[in-house]
Amino acid sequence: MISLTRRTLLRGAAASIALPWLDVMANASSLLASGGPANGGISGGGLARGAAEPVRRIAFMYIPNGVIAEHWLPADRSADFLSPASLRPLESVRDEIVVINGLNRTYLAGEPHSQAGSCWMTSSRPDAATDGVAAINTTLDQIIARETGRATPFPSLELSCNSFVDNMEPRMFDAISWYGPDHDAKSINDPVRLFERLFGKTDNVNRSVLDTVMEDARDLRAQLGVADRRKLDEYMESVRAIESRLDKQAGSRHRNANVVSPLPDEPPVNRGDYIRLMGDLMVLALRTDQTRVASLMVGPERWETPQLYDSVFDKPVNHHQMTHDDAYDEQVALIDRFHVEQFTYLVKKMRETPDGDASLLDNTLFVLGSGISDGNSHSYRELPMVIAGRGAGRFRTGRRIDCAKGTPLANLWLTLGQEMGVAISSFADSDGPLAEFAG
Questions:
Q1: 314 C-beta neighbours (distance < 10 Å), count
Q2: How far apart, in whole angstroms, are the C-alpha atoms of residue 119 and residue 175?
Q3: Could you tell me which of 190, 167, 207, 151 has the C-alpha nearest to residue 18?
Q4: pLDDT band at residue 155 under the 50/70/90 scheme
């Protein structure tokens, strides 16, 4: 029997890719736990099998400009927790989620959108103007990454679906992850560059990344059990599917020998295609333990370029401007529902992805939310928040939590940070962990 660790790579002449979790990796995990040697490659041996501690992960998905509360919050708090129209796409994953209502942040005088995304996960008290504008400081994801990042190639991964080309705003409108004051974590918004960062690239457009590692993959496959062969095949197929989507996206890409493949001129035009593609890459990165902390920003705050929301409108629309006109509330609510649909797609993807004896979703906390609740009034009260996943069995899902009036959002961040192994007793203006969620 072979022994593999999570750090094992499939290697080729021009690229290497990480492996997904395979059952055989539990052997190496057990050996490491008992103080035995580690091996980062394929090796012989007959190691005793044992249960490995699940790897916990956390991911954040940010939606800009708030939501229409009328379609997000239940009018009757005794009603089913998915009764609001914007949340109904979650019906197919209702047993996997928690909807949290009543979390709040403090708004400082100034431009409200500049404090929405940039301060969503901040570790500073909301009245601390650490960056000259608002409380921009080290964000929760980066605090967690400092604890978990030593075990992965990328301590954290910051992704963005910002394909806007005009009306450029200051960076506090376009960053939700910060290493510290005045130091944002630069996000990747090009799916091809993200793919190459995660899986490498080849010099010849006739060969995919998978083609270059196929010989190593065949050697490995021959040594695996039936279940692990299936997992390896499914993983390789998922990488191939993304490569195919990127190929179709790059319309100018010609498959001629000895031609260097150019990057696509721009990301997918349709918002759904763009968000799902970036989300699929995020799931692959989590699946292969390239990182355990990731964020996906659906769009920046206050940008004005019209965007095409496929299957919602027949032409591009300006999300931010629509939020400032009550006449468009119904249309904005359709965009809110659209964002929830993309989140649901990724929740299902995680649920279908094996991870040890469970699924990737079982071992992940996947957070959907916005740093502002109402784009028109610029309210920071009743922030929209949905969490999918059980955090390796630590949380009870399939419910709604209605927090007590005045509950700080920081209480949730404190809870999630502690559950991800960070030794903190407070976070920003928290007054304690969110007991309802942890219970």
A1: 9
A2: 9
A3: 151
A4: very high
